[in-house]
Structure formats: structure tokens, C-alpha cells
Design brief:
- With 463 residues, this protein is an alpha/beta fold.
- It has helices at 2-18, 22-31, 35-50, 52-63, 72-87, 93-106, 113-126, 130-134, 138-146, 150-160, 162-172, 189-198, 227-231, 234-237, 246-259, 276-287, 309-322, 369-372, 375-387, 409-418, 429-435; strands at residues 178-182, 203-204, 218-220, 241-243, 266-269, 301-306, 326-330, 343-349, 390-400, 422-424, 440-443, 452-459.
- Strands 5, 6, 7, 8, 9, 10, 11 and 12 form an 8-stranded mixed beta sheet that branches.
- Helix 19 (375-387) crosses helix 20.
């Protein structure tokens, strides 16, 4: 694993220096490794980011005043070695220590070899003593145990209570499954699973998901976590599958449900990248996989928009690969655009803090309150602009992948207070029956996969 850990250390240093997205850094990392090294590198790279606060606490216990003076390379050599010692069973303790010491020399930090050796051997002999933790405040203990900042834990407890917060914390460090959606316009679930298994993927129907109809979803479990691997599958190249978390599928299923209430529905997806919600809405309307209240539906038009031209281009590519007829354009969701059509269903899955999906992008949880303070006003602005594109009796669907009431329920309440032309709309029973709520609901990690929020509104009259 010598080259593997070397490349992981360099990737972690680059990730912190450039403040980039973990998935983009990981893609570059995996491109430098052999196939047999990639799964372990992915686990180690994401694991160190996910457990950074815990690992740094351990280092601080045995580092004294020297930790702040460590070079980024030495610090990440220690983190990767400690992560292996504490969370992985892939190698003997002595081999992990020896490799870390040798890595200091190979990465031109040989002066720190003895120090790294001492820290790791102290941890092996002592670990984290219970006495080290017992004197700490409760929120600090949780921060160290789950590697989630205290201020976020406190906000969760204020919003959802102590018991639910502990559930969120426990799920935050569990394995996040890669979930793929089957394109029923081209194939069926059984054929897709057979194809993926034939190529070596561990594919299975997601039978444990209690609310989403079996015929529109299945799950790929224990795969590598990057889309690059899925993209290498024959089923992907043939347009049979695309990646989408089940929570996101549920949101698209809600949009499809409401669209099916109209003749020739027009659907606008205003913050559409990477396009999976638009794809699933098309999938549903093409194949009538959701019940309609009045059996309408028929022909439809889907318009997908994104501010970033490159991301809009990815939506176009995805729609072409899958064979979905989706009109993709560039648009700023915060600004009124008179060229946009009026929609029967308008979906705005707004930019958010992302705290419902920290298992996939663990760096998200380290955002500070100051970094996300402006989000609710941005979200409300997008929601109010989106409202202008909704037909009379049309539906406005608001969603986020975060778990903070300030970005969820509070934004929905502010919108209703300022927009008397809209009223809350009851969500379909496959949502309310599984997750509670009536016109808005929160899906917590563990109920399906990622955390998610959605709220629906109906335009009762034109201004």
C-alpha cells in the first residue's frame, strides 16, 4: 500500500490547500492509481476527511505544542496512519507505523520520522483514554466521537432534539450507499442488475426502502464511491442507469406525481445540475411509474436550467445518453427571466449547506455558521423568483439536502407569509405516510439514505 498511501497523503494536502471539493480531488487521486489500489485509497481519503476532528484530537494528545507547527505532509501522514490504526483492519500495527515513518522520508520530511514513530506508538499503547474524555463538556465529547463541530451539533439539538441528533450523528459516519436509477424507457431493473453483476458490480434491488415504488429504483451496494466506476459499466454507456440518491428520487417522484395531474404538463427544474431530478421526472412521465390523481399526464415538456454553462452542458450530455427529451438552458434562478415559460410544476432544489449528505461529502460538516449565514435569504430569493413561473393552480416544490430548520421550515414559512397568492399543498401519501408531515416533510439519514427536506405550494390565483 506504499504508493497508495503516498498518493492519498498528497491528495489530502492538495484538498486542504486548494479548498476544493472532495469528489474532484478524489477523481484526480484515483487516476494515478492501479485498479486494485483504488477502493482502499477512496476509503482512506474520505475516511480521513470524515474523521478529521477525532484524528486531530488524538494527535494533539501526544503532540503537545508541536501540532500547530507540523507541515501539512507530516500532519496528513499522521492522520492516515491513525485512521488505519483506529478504523481499518487491513494491516498490522507495526506495518502501518513503519510505512508512515518511511513515507516521511520519501516525501522529504525525514526530520519528522522519529516524531511520527513516537506519536503512533503512544497511540497503539494507550489509545484515547476514557479519562481524557470524561472531563470534557458533553458537546465536545460528541464532537470528538463523531468528528462533527460542536456548533452544528448544538443547532441540530435545538432543531430536532437530543435523541434525533444522536441518530443523525451515528448515521453521519456510516457507509453511504451508491444508488442508481434505472431508465425504464430502455430496459428493466432485472436486466440491469444482471448486466452489472456480470461486470463485477455488487448490484441488488433496494428492497429496504420503505416508500419509493420498487419498479422505479434499485441500489448498488458496496461499490466504489465514484461515478467514474459506474460510468465504465456497459449499462451506463447504453443509457440504462444514472446515479441518484433515493431522497432525491423521492423529490422527483413528487414532481412527477403533481405533473401527472395536468394535461400536457410543463415542468421547470430551476437549479437542475447535475440533472438527475429532471431525468427522473422524465423517467416517471415516460413510463407512468407514479399514480396520477386524475389519470392525465399525456405529453409533457421539461425545462432544466443552471447558472453554470459547464454544468448545464453536463445535463445535456446526460439527457442525450439516456434518451430523454429535456430542454436545457442557462439561467440565474435568483433573477426574473421573462423568457422562461410558465409551468404546471416548478421545482427549485436550492443551494444549501448540504448537512443531510455529509456522508458523501464529509468536508461539508466543517462549514462554520458564518459561512452559511447568508443561505436562507438566497434560498428565499430563489423561491420567490421561482414562484413567478408557476401557472394558476400550478405547484411550486421547494427542496434542500440539508438538516437545518433555518434553511427549510423557516424559509417555507417566510415565503407563505410574503406571498398570499400561494397556499400549502398536501404532499402525496407515499411521502406523508412514510416520513410524516402534510405539506412539508424532513427525511432523516437512515430512513432511506441522505437527509432531505421538501415543501409544496399551490398558486391559488394570479396576482
Amino acid at each position: 500500500m506504499d504508493n497508495c498511501r503516498k498518493q492519498v497523503v498528497l491528495a489530502l494536502v492538495s484538498f486542504e490547500k486548494d479548498k476544493s471539493y472532495s469528489n474532484l480531488t478524489l477523481d484526480k487521486l484515483l487516476s494515478r492509481l492501479k485498479d486494485r489500489e483504488r477502493a482502499r485509497a477512496s476509503t482512506l481519503f474520505y475516511g480521513v476527511i470524515e474523521r478529521k476532528l477525532t484524528l486531530d484530537y488524538i494527535i494533539s494528545k501526544y503532540c503537545l505544542s508541536r501540532m500547530k507547527n507540523l507541515s501539512p505532509i507530516v500532519l496528513n501522514i499522521l492522520r492516515t496512519a491513525l485512521y488505519q490504526l483506529r478504523y481499518m483492519d487491513s494491516a498490522k500495527d507495526y506495518a502501518i507505523v513503519s510505512e508512515a515513518v518511511e513515507l516521511c522520508r520519501k516525501l522529504k520530511n525525514g526530520y519528522a520520522a522519529g516524531f511520527v514513530n513516537a506519536v503512533l506508538r503512544k497511540y497503539i499503547s494507550k489509545g484515547i483514554l476514557s479519562s481524557d474524555m470524561s472531563g470534557l463538556p458533553p458537546f465536545k465529547q460528541l464532537e470528538i466521537e463523531y468528528s462533527v463541530p460542536q456548533e452544528l451539533i448544538m443547532r441540530w439539538q435545538e432543531d430536532y432534539g437530543e435523541s434525533k441528533t444522536l441518530e443523525i450523528l451515528k448515521f453521519s459516519v456510516e457507509h453511504a450507499r451508491t444508488t442508481l436509477k434505472v431508465n425504464l424507457s430502455r430496459t428493466n431493473t432485472k436486466a440491469t442488475i444482471r448486466s452489472l453483476i456480470k461486470e463485477g458490480f455488487n448490484a441488488a434491488l433496494a428492497s429496504d426502502c420503505k416508500s419509493i415504488p420498487e419498479k422505479i429504483r434499485f441500489c448498488i451496494e458496496d461499490c466504489l464511491f465514484t461515478d467514474g466506476y459506474i460510468a465504465s459499466a456497459d449499462a451506463y454507456r447504453r443509457g440504462w442507469i444514472y446515479a441518484q440518491d433515493i431522497s432525491s428520487q423521492l423529490c422527483a417522484a413528487v414532481a412527477g406525481y403533481f405533473a401527472n395531474r395536468s394535461d400536457n404538463p410543463v415542468i421547470l427544474d430551476l437549479c437542475a445540475a447535475p440533472g438527475s431530478k429532471s431525468f427522473t421526472i422524465a423517467n416517471i412521465l415516460n413510463n407512468k411509474t407514479e399514480p396520477a390523481q386524475n389519470g392525465k399526464g399525456s405529453a409533457y415538456k421539461i425545462y432544466a436550467y443552471d447558472l453554470n454553462p459547464a454544468r448545464a452542458g453536463l445535463i445535456r450530455q446526460g439527457a442525450k445518453r439516456l434518451g430523454f427529451d429535456i430542454n436545457v438552458n442557462i439561467n440565474d434562478a435568483e433573477k426574473r427571466n421573462e423568457n422562461l415559460p410558465q409551468g404546471d410544476v416548478v421545482l427549485c432544489d436550492v443551494p444549501c449547506s448540504g448537512f443531510g449528505a455529509i456522508r458523501r461529502k464529509p468536508e461539508i460538516k466543517y462549514k462554520t455558521a458564518a459561512e452559511i449565514a447568508a443561505l436562507p435569504n438566497l434560498q428565499l430569493s430563489i423561491l420567490e423568483t421561482s414562484a413567478g413561473y408557476v401557472k394558476e393552480n400550478g405547484i411550486l416544490l421547494y427542496s434542500t439536502c440539508t438538516l437545518l430548520k433555518a434553511e427549510n421550515e423557516a424559509v417555507a414559512a417566510r415565503f407563505l407569509q410574503a406571498n398570499p397568492d400561494f397556499e400549502p399543498e398536501i404532499l402525496p401519501d407515499f411521502i406523508t405516510g412514510a416520513f410524516g408531515g402534510q405539506t412539508e416533510t424532513t427525511i432523516f439519514p437512515g430512513e432511506v439514505n441522505d437527509g432531505f427536506f421538501m415543501a409544496s405550494f399551490r398558486r391559488i390565483r394570479n396576482s
